[in-house]
Specification:
The chain is an alpha/beta fold. The protein has a single domain, classed as Alpha/Beta hydrolase fold, catalytic domain (Rossmann fold, 3-Layer(aba) Sandwich), CATH 3.40.50.1820. It has 12 helices and 8 strands. The protein has an 8-stranded mixed sheet, sandwiched between helices. A hairpin with a 5-residue loop joins β1 and β2. The termini are far apart.
Length: 307
Amino acid sequence: MKKIIAFFLILWSLGIFAQDSLMVEQEISINKIIDGTLLLPKTNSSEHLAIIIAGSGPTDRDGNQNFMKSNSLKKLAQALTRNGIATFRYDKRTVKQIKQNKIDKNTMFDDFITDAIAVLDYFKNQGAFKDITIIGHSQGSLIGMVAAQQGADKFVSLAGAGQTIDEIITFQVGKSAPGLVESTKKTFDVLKTGETTTDFNPMLASIFNVELQPFIISWMAYNPQDELKKLHIPVLLINGTKDLQVTVDEANLLKEAYPDATLKIIENMNHIMFVIEGDEMENIKSYNESSREISLEVVNSITNFIK
């Protein structure tokens, strides 16, 4: 019995070795705020680099947060690199702040754009790649499309919104608590002036926390449709039909704003690129199921687009 177990352990280790041998991993510090992982195909040098930008919250380079581990962005990076595309993914600055217990409450949405541009400039200045694609996931889509205006060669929106954040939040409130819609709109009207407020319905306190309001103000200043129109490069828009956070309608809005974009709607794919065959409960549970594989269709779509 021990020999059988040992045999399978050897096979398992060989499989892991074979998998790792397909790429070279390098840890890179872009600056004192941004740390990330560069994956390079080992068998041949890549002409293409994809920079992957994570979504909202303190999301790390792998697509994870505390108590929510899917490794979705890590899986995407590895899959693209196996397909001959170098990838760089990085921790959002808030991840490093939390690790160092030095949370900067003055971090604004614009800071995330500054970080993305710093990453783009770093690799452009190196001149090691023929073309650079920015892939923005969720909130990272808006960050990415603004950063891409500074010289990216291609742009991919993964589960990106087509409306401003105030419109999205108002819509979500309307679905869960229709009676609070007018109060939500009135509060956003104040925030649009650039001023914070404490005059809002107490039931909306989780949304309009006074400490978060300056960040929301900076975020809602960017309209995805307007920012996308500023790009003059190939664009790929990807959404899944089982995305609980960003509906297919959002992708259609982006397509309307940028008619030359390629639109790819993937059946049964959820927000973090997993294929969900079951109900909403399975969908929610998948956010913490790192054993799942991401959609092969999303990998192939991005690979074909970049190459």
